[in-house]
Amino acid sequence: MLGKNVNVTAVGSRDLAKAEAFAKALGIPKAYCSYQAILDDPDIEVVYIPLPNHLHVEWSIKAAEAGKHVLCEKPIAMTAAEAEQLIAVQARTGKMIQEAYMVLTNPQLIRARELVREGRIGELRTIQGAISWTNTDPNDVRNKLEIGGGITYDGGGYAITTTRFIFETEPTRAVALGDFDPELKVDRLVNAILDFPNGQANFLACQCLAPYERTVICGTEGRIEIPTPYNAAGDAPNKLIIDDGSTYDGSSAVVEEMAVVDQYTLEAELFSDAVRTDGPQLVPLEYTINNMRAIDAVQRSMRSGAWETV
């Protein structure tokens, strides 16, 4: 049992030994030697797809056409145009297809948006984000250009979806500077600015720096900091730092603790609820496609050196 109304019943891999070892370690009843075998199992209702990025759309379509609902890892596609195919597939099959941005289910991000809506920091003007780690493994899928590697698809996507969630509107253009690994050719560092109708967002995403993350939401009367906006703890309270700006050293800040939750479990539970009730999805495909459009614009700008329309 992963969570309320969520049971993990099978795992599939191209290597049966790996699938069996994974299943044994986590107490999963079934192990299959192919992805197709998962789709052929009539007892499985929902498929979670954590495959390399270039396989997301292909297997999301196959799963929906096999009668399964789909929770697919981010980014759901390599481009917005590719992701748009899924709208018709979802309509035709009647199966839900959702991108797995677990950060959007976390109470800390939802609470931050509530505080912005309530005017706690005055008028929202800008959001600053940072996410970094070190990954130089050439065998890691995130370092393989041809299958969707690079930091913009990974850490950059988190920063983009978070700022869109808080601003509650879409960026109109983007500009970015990127640093590309000379051997692996993937973008390993990106600094980007997104221009929204009601403000700007800037973010750093990198896979060649020391681990760090932070989101700072700035308004005319204060700021909200989220110390762990993406890799939030699942076994301890997360927190928001709320400051009215009355001191420069931050001593005027107050801390609001969140309830202890595992954002991955919560994501699975909320998707299960939507499936069971045929209710609204937390992350509908239209939201996902708009995120891909912003990612596309950032990637174009890294190469053109100019502002790109989202």
Characterization of the model:
By secondary structure, this protein is of the alpha/beta class. The chain folds into two domains: 111 residues, Rossmann fold; 179 residues, Dihydrodipicolinate Reductase, domain 2 (2-Layer Sandwich), CATH 3.30.360. It is 33% helix and 27% strand. The chain has nine helices and 14 strands. A nine-stranded mixed sheet has the order 13-12-11-10-6-9-8-7-14. It has a three-stranded parallel sheet with strand order 3-4-5, sandwiched between helices. Helix 6 packs parallel to helix 7. The N and C termini lie far apart (41 Å).
What attributes does this structure have?
3-stranded parallel sheet; 14 strands; 9-stranded mixed sheet; 9 helices; Dihydrodipicolinate Reductase, domain 2; Rossmann fold; 310 residues; 2 domains; alpha/beta
Note the total helix count.
9
Q: What structural category do the secondary elements indicate?
A: alpha/beta
What's the mean pLDDT score?
Answer: 96
Number of strands: 14
The CATH C-level name of the largest domain is Alpha Beta
Mind telling me the CATH superfamily name of the largest domain? Answer: Dihydrodipicolinate Reductase, domain 2
**Coarse shape:** globular
How many domains comprise the coordinates?
2
What is CATH's topology name of the largest domain?
Answer: Dihydrodipicolinate Reductase, domain 2
Write the CATH architecture name of the largest domain.
2-Layer Sandwich
Helix content: 25-40%
Strand content: 25-35%
- Pattern of helices and strands: EHEHEHEHHEHEHEEEEEEEHHE
Low-confidence stretches: none
The description of the largest β-sheet is:
9 strands, mixed
How large is the radius of gyration? 20 Å
